[in-house]
Amino acid sequence: MATVRIDGAAITGWDAFHTQSQQVFGFPDFYGRTMDAWIDCLSYLRDDDGMSAIRLAPDEVLQIDIVHADVWRSAHPDMLDEVLYCIAGINERYADYGEAPALRVGLC
After folding, report:
1. How high is the pLDDT of residue 1?
2. CA-CA distance, 60 to 103, in Å (whole number)?
3. What mean pLDDT, rounded, does the chain reach?
4. CATH code, domain with 34
5. Which of 30, 42, 60, 84 is deepest in the core (most CB within 10 A)?
6. How far is Cα 100 from Cα 46, in angstroms, rounded to an integer?
7. How many structural domains are present in the chain?
């Protein structure tokens, strides 16, 4: 199973979140640094579209471990909630395509 790690203690705002996301997921240089762009990049991990350095097999799941999630929640609770909401939406998108969910989150 592929795994990425997001450091919640380093999330000081949206800019820091998108910088870290671009690094850990391997988003392209033209990544739009918005939640819409984030969702788009993670919605096709099983396709060879170049929107992420991660490519999943048909039933593979990407484990997203958010370490120091408590620090992030304390500093920016709405941000973390929005990211978790978007992950749920991405998994719904996969289901709409007839595929298994592709993302799993661990709050550490």
Report:
1. 86
2. 9
3. 97
4. 3.30.370.10
5. 42
6. 11
7. 1
Compute the distance between CA of residue 106 and CA of residue 8 in angstroms, rounded to an integer: 12
Tokens of 77: 């609770």
Phi, psi of 107 (to 5 degrees): -100, 115
Mean of pLDDT values over 6-30: 98
CA 8 to the chain's CA centroid: 13
Instruction: State yes or no: pLDDT of 27 exceeds 90.
Output: yes
Residue 63 phi/psi, 5-degree rounding, is -85, 120
**Segments forming the whole domain that contains residue 64:** 2-107
In this prediction, residue 45 carries a pLDDT of 97
Tally: H helices and E strands in the chain: 4, 3
Rounded Cα distance between 102 and 13, Å, is 26
Whether 42 and 82 have beta carbons less than 8 Å apart is answered as no
Q: Which residues contact 5 (CB under 8 A, 6 or more apart)?
A: 24, 65, 66, 67
Instruction: Report, in this order, helix, strand and coil percent for the chain, each rounded to 5.
Output: 45, 15, 40
pLDDT of residue 50: 94
Structure tokens at 90: 């991405």
